[in-house]
């Protein structure tokens, strides 16, 4: 595989009445061509802000404070909005979580689908119209010809989300950023959409960043998993390792909180406490107030990213304990 996206030491801040607040704290990761990286974590962990930073779509009070984002060796962090507009919808596409706010309510579905095709692919209106019909059919929308003349409010939430997915895939992007794209869909359509993304990934070598809180989806589509907490990457590994040998207590907590549908008597486990706010100053490891395995060092010093293996990293002081030959506190708990 060849490197498609490379993010180094990314910091994203917000200007607020309380001052400059960090939302993404010095994170680094990469995505290869044909690879799916799933970003997981609770609400407020920085998943969506990371995605919006890559897309250049941060809100007015948000800005990249440091680091770099390279897409196919092209630095995105220094680009003007006009330059980003040439990339978005073309080499770089995003599926948003809420289609009603992402689709233009006063333009027909057909107009919004044709636009990227005519701008980026130089198609005629007739060619773009036919391509739009094929795209809607591909994402499982019945009577696609009829849907082209309709407006977003005339479609159900699930239908609107499928239109968003069709728009994002229209120009066969190099990188697809999907922010909780199947949340509003029933399980049958969700499976269809995941299959479609995987199919296109194989066909055109598209890289995928998939933001989700659904560990079932992660197990189905991820090649690698990046676990985020309070704006930081706390663990990263291939999907099998994350599920079978998680090293960070937060990752273990996420996995433990997934209900077991085969055991209806099992009590649902939760991670006690809540995610810290952007302006909450926490010394040491930011997870330690909620961590059942917290040690004294966790409260005093921020942990580095320990190398578990060459492809597995965990930002937890337990790794220092584990690497000193003592029992693994997570796997033996």
UniProtKB/TrEMBL annotation:
Stretches assigned to the ABC transporter domain: 5-255
InterPro entries: AAA+_ATPase, ABC_Ni/Peptide_Import, ABC_transporter-like_ATP-bd, ABC_transporter-like_CS, Oligopep_ABC_C, P-loop_NTPase
Database matches in PROSITE patterns: ABC_TRANSPORTER_1, ABC_TRANSPORTER_2
Subcellular localization, as worded in the UniProt entry: Cell membrane
Swiss-Prot/TrEMBL keywords: ATP-binding, Cell inner membrane, Cell membrane, Membrane, Nucleotide-binding, Translocase, Transport
Membrane protein topology class: Peripheral membrane protein
Single GO MF descriptor: ATP hydrolysis activity
SUPFAM superfamilies linked: P-loop containing nucleoside triphosphate hydrolases
Any Gene Ontology biological process: peptide transport
GO CC annotation, single: plasma membrane
Positions in coiled-coil regions: none
Chief site of localization: membrane
Keyword Cell inner membrane belongs to the record: yes
Database matches in Pfam families: ABC_tran (PF00005), oligo_HPY (PF08352)
Family to which the UniProt record says this protein belongs: Belongs to the ABC transporter superfamily.
PANTHER family membership: ATPASE AAA-TYPE CORE DOMAIN-CONTAINING PROTEIN (PTHR43297:SF14), OLIGOPEPTIDE TRANSPORT ATP-BINDING PROTEIN APPD (PTHR43297)
Name of the molecule in the record: ABC transporter ATP-binding protein
